[in-house]
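Shipment paperwork, digital attachment
Item: protein structure file
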Amino acid sequence: MTLKIAVSKGRVYEDFLSLLKSSGYRFKDEKTRKLVIKDLDNSINLIIVKAIDVPLYVNNAFADLGIVGKDIIDEFDDLFYELLNLEIGVCDLCIASMKNSKIKEMDYLKIATKYPKQANEYLKFKKLNGEVIKLNGSVELGPLINISDCILDIVETGNTLKENGLEVNEHFKKIYSKVIANKVSYKTKTDIITEFINKIS
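Attachment content:
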């Protein structure tokens, strides 16, 4: 029986592939542009997709498991199981604004973000009134052209922020990649999923 695993493309995929190889899985053509990659024993099929699509593949049973960041997971209602925290794809979800801005003094905060659910959580946590503006890309534009007072976004190196005159005001949460599972798959493939989790842990 083969496990179908949807993996977030880019750095998470590369780090996860290294983890698989160090756990004993063998691949012939991992350095390819193929979107579905099988190990040599055909025990796992990796389906490489955009991060935002990983929960959709898992929820709709197109994949048994998914590998994706907690930033994406927390934008979805809990329709899947979160099985394992992986030490890959580590970064921070931060509030950032233009240098010398006074957002800490504001009672009403406009936040531009790809993560509206978590931005609303931030406002609630801070007991602030505000508005969340969902942008699908280049959220740094929010403060630059006065769409928003600040942004809530993933920060790895901080170089993009610096190049656009922004700085981190606050670290909201630490982000890791996790293994998520389709609830039906977890019941019907319990043994091989458990074996897989134990192998990569």
